[in-house]
UniProtKB/TrEMBL annotation:
InterPro entries: SH3_Tf2-1. Residues 1-23 are annotated as: Disordered. It comes from the Eukaryota. This is Tf2-1-like SH3-like domain-containing protein. It holds the Pfam family SH3_Tf2-1. It comes from Cajanus cajan (Pigeon pea). Residues 32-96 form the Tf2-1-like SH3-like domain. Residues 1-10 have a biased composition (Basic and acidic residues).
Length: 186
């Protein structure tokens, strides 16, 4: 009776193991490959990364420095994650597939000593006259960043003093305050 129960228990265990093993696959990485790191409380990465409502499930990619044992890898972590141990189990890693669209080119920005930078206008998009308390004020729409399309309305007379290279000498509306804009975009 006991032997029969043990045999059935072994058969049930092997059946369940075969079901579970269908999903499992051995993960192996090479030195120099890049992987993502899972953000979970067990990896303690969640404490190093700011907790917000929409937290990331994986962070990285990080380069594998070497294999430690059969199922662990040492990663090259940035200084921000220096409080973490740099060896992780294979279950906490996901392979990174290189894609050129993941690379974002940075614009060169010159930062001043007080950590501010000057935005330079790209072109003048539009021109209009606005009536305020019986006076007409000439406004120009300035394109600040061609990539994002960020544009604002500015007072033309003040803007001409700061950036005269955007304006040429042809009047648009016939008065001395309105000129054909040198960098006009249509």
């Amino acid at each position: 009776m006991v032997r029969q129960i043990q045999e059935r228990l072994r058969a049930t265990q092997s059946r369940q193991k075969s079901y579970a093993d269908r999903r499992r696959r051995p993960l192996e990485f090479e030195e120099g490959e890049h992987v993502f790191l899972r953000v979970t409380p067990t990896t303690r990465v969640g404490r190093a990364v700011r907790a917000k409502k929409l937290t990331l499930r994986f962070i990285g990619p990080y380069q594998i420095l070497r294999r430690v044992g059969l199922v662990a890898y040492q990663l090259a972590l940035p200084p921000v994650l220096s409080n973490l141990h740099d060896v992780f189990h294979v279950s906490q890693l996901r392979k990174y597939i290189k894609d050129p669209s993941h690379v974002v080119e940075m614009d060169e920005v010159q930062v001043r000593e007080n950590l501010t930078y000057e935005k330079r206008p790209v072109a003048v998009i539009d021109h209009k006259l606005k009536e305020l308390r019986g006076k007409s004020i000439s406004l120009v729409k300035i394109l600040w960043d061609a990539a994002t399309g960020e544009a604002t309305w500015e007072v033309e007379s003040q803007f001409k003093k700061q950036y005269p290279f955007l304006f040429s000498g042809k009047p648009i509306f016939g008065d001395e305050n309105s000129y054909l804009l040198g960098g006009i975009v249509t």
